[in-house]
Structures are given as structure tokens and as C-alpha cells.
Amino acid sequence: KAGVTQTPRYLIKTRGQQVTLSCSPISGHRSVSWYQQTPGQGLQFLFEYFSETQRNKGNFPGRFSGRQFSNSRSEMNVSTLELGDSALYLCASSSTRYGYTFGSGTRLTVV
Amino acid sequence: LAKTTQPISMDSYEGQEVNITCSHNNIATNDYITWYQQFPSQGPRFIIQGYKTKVTNEVASLFIPADRKSSTLSLPRVSLSDTAVYYCLVGDRNYGGSQGNLIFGKGTKLSVKP
Q1: In angstroms, rounded to a whole number, what is the distance separating the alpha carbons of residues A4 and A21?
Q2: Which residue of A27, B66, B81, B88 is surrounded by the most CB atoms within 10 Å?
Q3: pLDDT one-digit tens code per residue, A16-32
Q4: Is A42 helix (H, G, I), strand (E, B) or coil?
Q5: Size of interface A-B (CB pairs under 8 A)
Q6: Rounded to a whole number, what is the distance in Å from the CA of A21 to chain B's nearest CA?
Q7: Sign of the four-CA dihedral A64, A68, A69, A74
Q8: Nearest CB to A102: which of B43, B99, B106?
């Protein structure tokens, strides 16, 4: 069974640009959540989608947004990138037996 | 969700048993205790989950005392490949139907030496 797939794996963007990251959950999983990981702040929850609806949101500015499609695939968008947005962005889908399954992440570098 | 406290780092040698203790003094009645393992530049990976007493799987054991205010992850006979960050989380069991919001602490960085 395929795991959680995140694309791209690496990304370099310039300040002020916007970026879109993609996450394909495990087949059959309807919940997708996003996390940001930085050395200073650790793993922080961004938002969670369930059946195309945002069900929960973390404490991040409105520049961070997301959506979920009918096939449960999810995207997150960051607009007007700042240097501090450089991080590993992780997506997770939920399992009925093993809790959360995370993808390998997208490493975003803002220059 | 309950806040957790773990040691920042631990060192061990190959073949030893490693015990990582997590404190969660304000754990709620419905909360479960879940441990994740994370290697650099990868997402966290589920290790084990429990509610009370002892849980064992092919990877680790989880010991939870009666008051549930702490828990201990036990890794038997560690190898170099067990070098990683280990996170203790408490919260809803959340197997896909309820709110999805994992709160990660700083975790414990385990270094296994030859």
C-alpha cells in the first residue's frame, strides 16, 4: 500500500513569491493535516482537512492556506514568502489503526 | 491537549536497552499516549500507543503507571539505526474520524554509539 506522497521534495523560492505544495494521502484516508518543522519552533500544526472541509487550524498567518480535493489529495499554499518560512513541511493522513502516517516532507528554502 | 515533558537528549550504546520517560501530569481521562520516531529530513513515524499498563509490539514497549501521569518508552537492544528524535504525545486516539491536531513537544534526541 502506497504511503503518503509529498511533492516536490525540495523547493527554493525567492522572498515575496508564492508556493504550492502537494500531498497525496494513503488511499481511503479522508483526513489530511499539515505541519511545519523548523529547528527553532519544532513541529507545529498548520491545519487539517476532512472531506474537503478545513476542520482545524493552527496559529499561523493568513498567508498559509490549504485545500482538499474530492479524492482527498491536499495542497497548501504560502503567499508572499518570507525568509522565516524556510522549513520542512510535512503532510499526514490518518489511519484507522496506526494513527497518523506522515510523508517525507517538502523542504522549502526561501532566499 | 496535555503538555508533555521529555529529556532533551539521551546517549546509549548498541545492544543496550533504552528507556525514555515522558511526563504528562494533566492528562485527561480520554487521552491516549502515543510515541513517534523521526529521522532527519523525514516525517515522524508511529511507534506505539497505549492507554494504561503495558503495551508491547515488535518495535518497543510502553509502560504506563496507574496514575497515567507519566509513561516510559522502552527500546530493547538498540542499534545505530535507532538514532533519532522520539516524541511523546497525549491526546485523542484520533484514528481518522475526529479532530486532527497533534501537538509535538521538543522530543528526545537519542544518540546510539557503537
Answers
A1: 13
A2: B88
A3: 999 999 999 999 888 89
A4: strand
A5: 75
A6: 15
A7: positive
A8: B43
Report the alpha-carbon distance of residue B18 to residue B111 in Å, rounded: 11
Residues B85-112, mean pLDDT to the nearest whole number: 77
Residues of B in contact with A35 (CB under 8 A): 102, 104
Q: Is residue A1 scored above 70 in pLDDT?
A: no
Output the pLDDT for position B10: 97
- Chain A residue numbers with beta carbons less than 8 Å from the beta carbon of B42 are 102, 104-105
Model pLDDT for residues A51-108, shown as the tens digit of each residue: 899 988 999 999 999 999 999 999 999 999 999 999 999 999 986 565 788 999 999 9
Closest by CA to B95, choosing from B34, B23, B25, is B34
Distances from the Cα of A32 to the Cα of A8, A66, A96, B42, B64, angstroms: 17, 10, 13, 17, 29
* List of residues 6+ apart from B14 with CB closer than 8 A: B78, B79, B80, B112, B113, B114
Q: Which residues contact B41 (CB under 8 A, 6 or more apart)?
A: A88, A104, A105, A107
**What pLDDT is recorded for position A20?**
98
Which residues on neighbouring strands pair with residue A11, listed in sequence order? A108
CA A32, A33, A34, A40 torsion: positive or negative? negative
